[in-house]
Amino acid sequence: xxxxxxxxxxxxxxxxxxxxxxxxxxxxxxxxxxxxxxxxxxxxxxxxxxxxxxxxxxxxxxxxxxxxxxxxxxxxxxxxxxxxxxxxxxxxxxxxxxxxxxxxxxxxxxxxxxxxxxxxxxxxxxxxxxxxxxxxxxxxxxxxxxxxxxxxxxxxxxxxxxxxxxxxxxxxxxxxxxxxxxxxxxxxxxxxxxxxxxxxxxxxxxxxxxxxxxxxxxxxxxxxxxxxxxxxxxxxxxxxxxxxxxxxxxxxxxxxxx
Length: 258
Ligand code: NAD
Description:
Strand order of the largest sheet: 3-2-1-4-5-6-7
Strand content: 5-15%
CATH architecture: 3-Layer(aba) Sandwich
Radius of gyration: 18 Å
Number of strands: 7
CATH superfamily: NAD(P)-binding Rossmann-like Domain
Low-confidence stretches: none
Bound molecules: nicotinamide-adenine-dinucleotide
Largest sheet: 7 strands, parallel
Number of helices: 8
Shape: globular
Helix content: 40-55%
Structural class: alpha/beta
Number of domains: 1
């Protein structure tokens, strides 16, 4: 029987890549995120055509707990349960702490950290009932180390690693694993948008942001690809990964090795 996979923030970038990889395996996939209605419907059809699983779009705003509850309830109502939950939705804001807008701080913490608590608290009872489940949190190298001007992002990503470990301990005896993936820089719209802001904060050119800031510590000097992250999610959701829980897999070209 097809697995049901919910991927938050999957209208773009890494989340879309993960949704694509699970759809290609024939899973039923619930996609979520913002974007133009026509483009989202085209994506939904494209994913559904790939291997015969059903693909549903749910527009839940990951900053709104009630909408997150409805996302998981809709997935369960439509497909029977949630087998794999991927917490991926993300945004960024770059500013010095003393200039960081309070509403941006609250929004980043809500979307990057609290949303995973809300998806999990709704999905865990379904997984417990099924006696199995996989929860995969797309964290970041910034879950392990910091960079200046990204206080909310770094705090939320460090937080999600704590949530990952706690949930793994609570769920270990229920056949449910909980892990994080920590990518280095992947060239997605989220990263492309922060290049001009970082250039302004640091007083350097956009090319310098790529080579001297983003790839400076990424030892391979290459961006990580979306598919590398997606295939790691596929592995963590596989039977072969059943004893991997409460940990993270870094895909950062050696960044956090130094
Ligand atoms: P992206 O901007 O391409 O995609 C982000 C997705 O999240 C989009 O679908 C967007 O619509 C959705 N989203 C944003 N706010 C939302 C909200 N309130 N409710 C619902 N959906 C919302 O970004 P990406 O680079 O693919 O990032 C995906 C995840 O990967 C994020 O958690 C990010 O922190 C993490 N990550 C990215 C990189 C990178 O270099 N790109 C590195 C490490 C970790």
